[in-house]
Specification:
about 425 residues, alpha+beta, 8-stranded mixed sheet, 2 domains, SH3 type barrels, Fumarylacetoacetate hydrolase, domain 2
Length: about 425
């Protein structure tokens, strides 16, 4: 495991960027997630930035004052995407994190407000060039609930507790937070129809997920040992796998999702590194007594903490709610700790056939749902496939998403003795 605690995780650390010291910030000095930005109204190539409070540290600019950075690191930081930095591995990232903490900590002798760009004055871009995207189905609670809707007697596939299930997604339609989501059209057939028709989806849904960005790649033909999986993970983001459930129901047999999921996937712009997540590693809580042991290639060494305790939430605000100033409504809250398969197992399984992973590849966890009703990670679960609509605070009802609905995912880690760190927002508004 690459998780390692050091002085950068000290909760007493403070920054000369005052907004980073506020108790409710997502981006204290103990976090330092990476993203790619440009200044609004300024014609310039995208630049790598680090979130600190309500500011963005212009990393290529600030890095000029860090004389001990290797040339390879400097070159990676000057790129318009994070792929080259991702490829350098955790030893480089730990050294870079230490240098950034030293630069940003309170009392630093090397400070320059000119290195900072207010988040409100910046436009965020895709953090990396994503070559491949794979979406998993790693939540037992989600798989069981959805299975009961369509196969009450046999909700889980017989392979579910043995193998992490996934489908290959479409990287070209992954978009950054804030991008409008156009309602897809597709071929559907409702139960009362004898023939399918082509029309806009009537059952548009969100999926509350985390995204796993690959760091150091792997060679074609060489599997990744589960004990080394962390060494191939750069960090995590939030991910909304928008899904057209009516299209999905008609097209999925026998090869699984296709057009129902390839029209848009939204990710949060900031990638929280594994180094920042080290204090929040934990044991799983979803694998019950009597479940089969993972096969040897998926079984972690004894004494490891393979899961990451990240709380994730989904909020909705209809167009009418926003127009009247009403607060968004929280629909669900769950945790990555509830996943049946942890992020390391997903990476290991993906490469177990010899499939090569590349820096910047993206893996989705699948919908993150917990055991309770309040932790159901999509409307398909919450409304029982539309049969039990929910009511919004203003009296509007939803079986699935309507045009004008804004869906926002949020994520954060909290543990006694450590600073709270967040993931920012993953947001999209549905348009007709």
């Amino acid at each position: 495991m690459s998780a390692r605690l050091d002085e950068s995780h000290d909760p007493a650390l403070r920054s000369w960027v005052e907004s980073a010291n506020l108790p409710d910030t997502d981006f204290p000095i103990q976090n330092l997630p990476f993203g790619v930005f440009t200044r609004r109204g300024v014609s310039q190539p995208p630049r790598i930035g680090v979130a600190i409070g309500d500011q963005i540290l212009d990393v290529p600019l600030a890095a000029k004052t860090l004389p001990r950075l290797p040339v390879e690191t400097r070159e990676a930081l000057s790129a318009p995407a994070l792929n080259a930095l991702m490829a350098l591995g955790h030893d480089v990232m730990r050294a870079l994190r230490a240098a950034l903490v030293e630069l940003l900590r309170d009392g630093s002798t090397n400070t320059d407000p000119g290195w900072l760009v207010p988040m409100a004055a910046a436009e965020m871009h895709m953090p990396a060039a994503i070559g491949d995207y794979t979406d998993f189905f790693a939540s037992l609670h989600h798989a069981t609930r959805v299975g009961r809707l369509f196969r009450p007697d046999h909700p889980l596939a017989p392979n579910y507790k043995y193998v992490p299930i996934a489908y290959h997604g479409r990287s070209s339609s992954i978009v950054p937070s804030g991008t409008a989501i156009r309602r897809p059209s597709g071929q559907t057939r409702s139960p009362d129809e004898t023939q399918p028709s082509y029309r806009p989806s009537r059952s548009l849904d969100y999926e509350l997920e985390a995204g796993i960005f690959v760091g150091r790649g792997s060679e074609l033909g060489r599997p990744i040992d589960v004990a080394d999986a962390d060494d191939h993970i750069f960090g995590l983001c939030l991910l909304n796998d928008w899904s057209a459930r009516d299209i999905q129901a008609w097209e999925s047999q026998p090869l699984g999702p296709f057009l129902a999921k390839n029209f848009a996937t939204t990710i949060s712009p900031w990638i929280v590194t594994l180094e920042a997540l080290a204090p929040f590693r934990c044991e799983p809580r979803s694998r019950a007594a009597g479940d089969p042991e993972p096969l040897p290639h998926l079984k972690h060494p004894a004494g490891t903490a393979p899961h990451i305790d990240v709380d994730v939430e989904v909020w909705i605000a209809s167009e009418r709610m926003r127009n009247t100033g009403a607060a968004p409504m929280r629909l669900a809250r769950s945790s990555l700790r509830d996943l049946y398969w942890d992020v390391g197992q997903l990476v290991t399984h993906h490469a177990s056939s010899g499939c090569n992973l590349r820096p910047g590849d993206l893996l989705g966890t699948g919908t993150i749902s917990g055991a309770g009703d309040e932790s159901q990670g999509c409307l398909l679960e919450i409304t029982a496939n539309g049969r039990q609509p929910i009511e919004l605070p203003n009296g509007e009802r939803r079986s699935f998403l309507a045009d004008g609905d804004e869906v926002t995912l949020r994520g954060y880690c909290e543990r006694e003795g450590f600073a709270r760190i967040g993931f920012g927002e993953c947001r999209g508004i549905v348009t007709g």
